[in-house]
Design a protein that fits this description.
- The protein is mainly beta.
- It has one domain: Sandwich (Immunoglobulin-like), CATH 2.60.40.
- It is about 10% helix and about 45% strand.
- The protein contains one helix and eleven strands, in the order αβββββββββββ.
- It has a six-stranded antiparallel beta sheet, with no helix packed on it. The chain has a five-stranded antiparallel beta sheet with strand order 1-2-3-9-8, with no helix packed on it.
- Strand 8 and strand 9 form a beta hairpin.
- The radius of gyration is 18 Å and the shape is globular.
- It starts with a helix and ends with a strand.
């Protein structure tokens, strides 16, 4: 009886571990299978996973540039969006949390990100971060704006941009 109970318990634990969702790690590389979803937006790949409790978004953008990349949340336009911009200039990573104001953006005085990384590799730059969804998602969805520029200058104009909506429910 004890042996059967132990085997059953070990089997349940193994099954739970096998089906547990592994959350992405912000290391500047969006590996195959790391994120629950990947969406092609123009010539960019937008990766995302929502935590099992729905409280945190794990996001990545891979863009064909040696310049800056950005993910904006809470709006499909710059105005009012919470924006995360990143660039890797000769191995020096820069990530800035900003708010879109009309067609510009300004640095935020407080930080929201719980993890972040940006890395340039070959002819692509990858931005990854995790952020709490409180105050960003509305009515069961999250509006997203992605963009990239060709220069290592967070104030330079974008080369391309696209938007999408993530359904959270």
């Amino acid at each position: 009886m004890k042996k059967t109970t132990i085997v059953f318990a070990v089997s349940l634990i193994a099954l739970a571990v096998a089906f547990a969702q592994t959350l992405p790690v912000a290391d500047g590389t969006a590996s195959p299978g790391e994120y629950a979803r990947v969406e092609a937006l123009k010539d960019m790949n937008f990766h995302y996973t929502i935590s099992p409790d729905g409280s945190t978004a794990y996001l990545a953008l891979v863009a064909p540039t040696k310049g800056w990349v950005s993910i904006g949340l809470g709006s499909r336009k710059m105005d009012g969006a919470f924006m995360v911009l990143g660039m890797d200039e000769a191995g020096k990573a820069t990530i800035s949390e900003e708010t879109g104001v009309k067609h510009r953006h300004n640095p935020n005085p407080t930080k929201r990100l719980v993890a972040e990384a940006v890395k340039e590799s070959g002819n692509a730059t990858t931005l990854e971060f995790a952020v709490p969804l409180a105050g960003l998602a509305r009515d069961g969805s999250l509006e997203v704006l992605v963009a990239y520029g060709r220069k290592d200058n967070l104030r330079s104009y974008h080369a391309k941009y696209a938007s999408t909506v993530i359904q959270l429910k």
